[in-house]
């Protein structure tokens, strides 16, 4: 793999979360973000390390009715931003990846020996059902570690067999176990195996390496889960020579068979993908595990979908020239019909190649990025693509007009809300401000980036919403609609989703009132299970329109002839900060079905015009959508809360108010009333508790505030506290490092401070102050 080498920049940890101040220390980020050698990995393994509880785990999806993806190729995205870990410069807006619903696997890549995906990236991927892999790489002078990987940790004592042995290279499971332990502790799902240095041991070493990969696969599945995987990168061949093949063939077949999948190099000529497919289909089914007698729970049968054909977005030797010409290469891979998968390398090209140009801004990048992935915002607009470069002697390869990347892959919904409550604030992972229930608590001139706060952007409104008349009999042209991200206003987080609807006037008799359906997000739901959905929104329109908004859920598939049951819940509020309003519904699909069903949640918008012949335009800001199973009736209700907080100062800093905050979460049942036990034989229990495994509240993140003690030894009301940051950066669920640069100047000069911790649940609930905790720090 001719990988893009890192630029001459110093390593910077993930500091650009919503934190007050600038110049924060590395203590706010992940411990040991990567390892430069296997010796460093051994040093980590020698020290006990608790699993990061702040990283969201992967939730495997179930079969979904209405989703035709079983035989289509998948998308793997390999993220190499300036060599890795350099996409995070303090206190600014930066690159984020936002097309998770089309992606099956994401690889965080760097040129360190063991690359660990940052905790925020793991959470962002898992929230939308995508596997996150780290990287194990050997390049340059990595031959010694290549051998050490197989023989295991070296002893310090003199040791050896008591008698001479004529066996081949011994194979130790040590590093397979340690690497699986690391993935389990940090919350990611496996590794890309990139061996880009020759193996001097030849056949003996390569066979041992193939055997070691099977051990790694088994360890990962045992410790991480059945979804875990190790993917082989097309580099070393079975002789030990470093020779990229650009396809599957007999030279790299042994490594493909031992691993979960193959990621080919990206310098292939146009006919190579079909050669890969032909070669795979020529293999004995017993070899690839497709015969029933050769299947196992650890090593599943191989298919064409397990061959990820490389495409370099930078275009280095890649057919089609990369960039907006990637579609040319993907057309040859043909994931739709041939069924091969695609490995897209260096997708942050849209940022790296443009960021130093005059007039560059985050908004310009987003327009550039969304065009490459989703297509033009205006339907029918032509996207210019540079001519594709051709190798010397290569015949011309005709291609059609530009095709966006997502057009080749099926869109999948996030995990079923019954398994993982669906939450989105439409967060893109960046912002210039931070909002808590519509109130701006932080403003940053240069912005911030925090991948942990990234959510679905509403996967059915890009590149533009598709509206339909709620009454199918209407003959007028359906209104136009557009979607955009609004970084100036939000409910919770750093941005909201702006939807704009416009249309021409109508002289139809019933045009005074029109009603449209606007789908926002696809979901997979379980039939006969009741769900609740809650929306926070606000409207901006001219005075000549009156609105009637409704939240609804509709089937996406035509294979089920049953209407959804949708009922409003009388908890709508219009008195929220910033002009926000809530809508709530309960819904269910009242039919039996063997698998999950694909549905869309969206808005039913009715609008009445004073003069229906006039053109109209209005916009809607969506701040938050949450979906989760309806609570069981008659069980004792509970409220999430925080129990206590503690603080441990950091002596090395120049203020006694810097250190580590920790806290504990809890739940409280509502008070018992109307207690009536008629006799010892009364069959009615005095209370009924929710005995499911998901009743206890889970928190997305915690907001952290500070307030000074006054000279008379008092503190003000919690509402006056100053926001200093959120959790999520270091993978710790209930810990926050108070960096001195987070604290306002007046705080550092106080005689004492009070820190307040405020939870935000996975159902979008921001805890009231009576449910929160404080801890006092006095000089």
From TrEMBL:
<keyword id="KW-0378">Hydrolase</keyword>
<dbReference type="InterPro" id="IPR005201">
    <property type="entry name" value="TIM_ENGase"/>
</dbReference>
<dbReference type="Pfam" id="PF03644">
    <property type="entry name" value="Glyco_hydro_85"/>
</dbReference>
<feature type="region of interest" description="Disordered">
    <location>
        <begin position="378"/>
        <end position="397"/>
    </location>
</feature>
<dbReference type="GO" id="GO:0033925">
    <property type="term" value="F:mannosyl-glycoprotein endo-beta-N-acetylglucosaminidase activity"/>
</dbReference>
<dbReference type="InterPro" id="IPR032979">
    <property type="entry name" value="ENGase"/>
</dbReference>
<feature type="domain" description="Cytosolic endo-beta-N-acetylglucosaminidase TIM barrel">
    <location>
        <begin position="91"/>
        <end position="434"/>
    </location>
</feature>
<feature type="compositionally biased region" description="Basic and acidic residues">
    <location>
        <begin position="388"/>
        <end position="397"/>
    </location>
</feature>
<protein>
    <submittedName>
        <fullName>Glycoside hydrolase family 85 protein</fullName>
    </submittedName>
</protein>
<dbReference type="GO" id="GO:0005829">
    <property type="term" value="C:cytosol"/>
</dbReference>
């Amino acid at each position: 793999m001719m990988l893009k080498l890192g630029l001459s920049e110093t390593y910077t940890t993930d500091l650009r979360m919503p934190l007050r101040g600038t110049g924060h220390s590395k203590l706010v980020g992940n411990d040991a973000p990567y390892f430069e050698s296997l010796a460093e990995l051994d040093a980590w393994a020698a020290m006990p390390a608790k699993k990061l509880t702040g990283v969201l785990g992967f939730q495997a999806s179930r079969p979904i009715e209405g989703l035709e993806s079983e035989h289509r190729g998948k998308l793997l995205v390999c993220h190499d931003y300036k060599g890795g870990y350099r996409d995070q410069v303090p206190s600014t807006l930066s690159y984020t990846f936002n097309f998770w619903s089309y992606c099956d696997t994401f690889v965080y890549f760097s040129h360190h020996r063991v690359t660990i995906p940052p905790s925020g990236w793991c959470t962002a991927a898992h929230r939308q059902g995508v596997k996150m892999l780290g990287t194990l790489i050997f390049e340059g002078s990595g031959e010694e570690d290549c051998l050490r990987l197989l023989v295991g940790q070296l002893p310090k004592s003199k040791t050896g067999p008591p008698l001479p042995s004529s066996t081949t290279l011994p194979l130790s499971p040590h590093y397979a176990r340690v690497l699986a332990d690391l993935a389990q502790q940090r919350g990611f799902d496996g590794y890309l195996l990139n061996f880009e240095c020759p193996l001097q041991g030849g056949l003996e070493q390569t066979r041992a390496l193939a055997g070691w990969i099977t051990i790694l696969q088994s360890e990962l599945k045992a410790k991480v889960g059945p979804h875990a995987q190790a993917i082989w990168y097309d580099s070393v061949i079975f002789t030990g020579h470093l020779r990229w093949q650009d396809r599957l063939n007999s030279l790299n077949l042994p490594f493909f068979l031992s691993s979960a999948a193959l990621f080919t190099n990206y310098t292939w000529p146009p006919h190579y993908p079909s050669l890969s497919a032909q070669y795979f289909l020529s293999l004995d089914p017993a070899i690839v595990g497709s015969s029933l007698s050769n299947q196992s729970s650890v090593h599943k049968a191989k298919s064409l979908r397990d061959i990820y054909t490389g495409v370099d977005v930078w275009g280095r030797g890649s057919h089609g020239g990369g960039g907006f010409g990637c579609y040319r290469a993907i057309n040859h891979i043909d994931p739709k019909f041939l069924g091969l998968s695609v490995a897209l390398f260096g997708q942050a090209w849209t940022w790296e190649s443009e960021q130093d140009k005059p007039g560059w801004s985050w908004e310009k990048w987003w327009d550039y990025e969304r065009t490459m992935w989703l297509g033009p915002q205006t339907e029918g607009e032509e996207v210019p693509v540079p001519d594709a470069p051709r190798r010397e002697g290569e015949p011309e390869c005709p291609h059609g007009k530009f095709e966006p990347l997502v057009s080749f892959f099926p869109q999948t919904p996030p995990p079923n809300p019954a398994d993982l409550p669906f939450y989105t604030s439409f967060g893109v992972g960046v912002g210039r401000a931070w909002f808590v229930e519509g109130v701006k608590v932080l403003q940053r001139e240069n912005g911030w980036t925090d991948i942990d706060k990234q959510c679905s952007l509403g996967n059915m409104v890009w590149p533009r919403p598709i509206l339909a008349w709620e009454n199918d009999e209407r003959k007028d042209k359906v209104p136009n609609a557009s979607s955009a991200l609004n970084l100036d206003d939000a409910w919770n987080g750093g941005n909201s989703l702006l939807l704009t609807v416009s249309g021409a006037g109508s002289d139809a008799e019933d045009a005074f009132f029109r009603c449209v359906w606007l789908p926002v997000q696809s979901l997979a739901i379980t039939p006969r299970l009741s769900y609740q959905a809650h929306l926070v929104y606000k409207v901006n329109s001219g005075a000549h329109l009156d609105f009637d908004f409704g939240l609804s859920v509709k089937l996406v598939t035509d294979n089920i002839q049953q209407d959804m049951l949708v009922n409003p819940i009388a908890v709508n509020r219009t008195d929220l900060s910033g002009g926000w309003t809530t809508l709530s519904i309960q819904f269910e699909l009242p039919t039996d079905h063997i698998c999950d069903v694909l549905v869309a949640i969206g808005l039913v918008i009715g609008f009445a015009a004073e003069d229906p012949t006039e053109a109209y335009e209005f916009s809607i800001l969506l701040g938050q959508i949450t979906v989760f199973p309806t609570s069981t009736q008659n069980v004792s209700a509970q409220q999430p809360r925080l129990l206590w907080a503690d603080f441990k100062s950091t002596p090395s800093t120049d203020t006694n108010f810097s250190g580590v905050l920790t806290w504990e979460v809890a739940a409280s049942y509502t008070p018992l009333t109307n207690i009536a036990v008629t006799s010892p034989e009364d069959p009615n229990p005095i209370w009924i508790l929710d005995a499911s495994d998901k009743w206890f509240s889970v928190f997305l993140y915690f907001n952290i505030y500070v307030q000074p003690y006054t000279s008379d030894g008092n503190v003000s009301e919690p509402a006056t506290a100053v926001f200093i940051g959120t959790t999520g950066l270091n993978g710790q669920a209930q810990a926050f490092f108070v960096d001195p640069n987070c604290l306002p100047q007046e705080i550092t000069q106080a005689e004492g401070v009070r820190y307040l911790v405020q939870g935000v649940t996975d159902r979008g609930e921001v805890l009231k102050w009576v449910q929160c905790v404080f801890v006092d720090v006095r000089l």
